[in-house]
């Protein structure tokens, strides 16, 4: 029975590690999205840092990416930049790939 319990603990540990990696990659992706949007809005470096943090925080409002999409589309539109959800979703995919790449390089 000890072997089964060991396997169960190993699976639980792997699941916890996988969830932590996913969380870190998503947070990095959101930071990159914030930097991308800040560049579109021509924010200063200080404003860019604060904005990137606000995008990371926005992702905690609800499950999924809809909260981030709404924030980015709303903020960019308010800044006078013509943008639609599909453009933001493409940026999300690009930044997700970049975040995964950065995470793997950092290991």
Describe this structure in words.
By secondary structure, the protein is mainly alpha-helical. The protein has one domain (2-106): Major Prion Protein, CATH 1.10.790.20. Helix content is 82%, strand content 0%. It is built from 4 helices and no strands. Helix 1 (2-40) crosses helix 2 (45-58) and helix 1 (2-40) crosses helix 4. The chain is elongated. This is DUF1476 domain-containing protein. It holds the Pfam family ATPaseInh_sub_z. InterPro entries: ATPase_inh_sub_z (IPR009945), ATPase_inh_sub_z_sf (IPR038293).
Q: Portion of residues in helices?
A: over 70%
Low-confidence stretches: none
The averaged pLDDT comes out at 93
**What structural class should be given to the helix and strand makeup?**
mainly alpha
Q: Let me know the CATH homologous superfamily.
A: Domain of unknown function DUF1476
The helix count comes to 4
Helix-strand topology string = HHHH
Count of DSSP strands: 0
Under the CATH scheme, the architecture is Orthogonal Bundle
Q: Using the alpha-carbon principal axes, give the shape.
A: elongated
| Strand content range | under 5%
The rounded Rg comes to 17 Å
């Amino acid at each position: 029975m000890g072997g089964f319990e060991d396997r169960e603990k190993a699976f639980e540990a792997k699941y916890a590690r996988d969830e932590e990696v996913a969380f870190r990659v998503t947070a990095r992706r959101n930071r990159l999205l914030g930097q991308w949007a800040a560049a579109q809005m021509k924010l200063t470096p200080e404003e860019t840092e604060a904005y990137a943090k606000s995008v990371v925080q926005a992702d905690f409002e609800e499950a999924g990416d809809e909260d981030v999409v709404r924030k980015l589309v709303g903020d960019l539109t308010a800044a006078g930049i013509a943008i639609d959800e599909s453009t933001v979703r493409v940026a999300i995919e690009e930044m997700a790939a970049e975040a995964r790449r950065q995470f793997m390089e950092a290991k």
